[in-house]
Amino acid sequence: MKKCIFMTLIFNILLSTAALAECTYDGEKHPEGTVIGPYTCSDGKWVFK
Question: Domain residue spans in the chain?
Fold first, then answer.
């Protein structure tokens, strides 16, 4: 029973992190929603806002 719960937890963590987009700026990865100057990381791209 504990193994099943553990595997479900690991699966959910992997699934949730895979869904998060990252943007690269100056060689560094930044998570979704990061704001640098007039740009915001959205869907893996820097968008001007």
Answer: 22-49
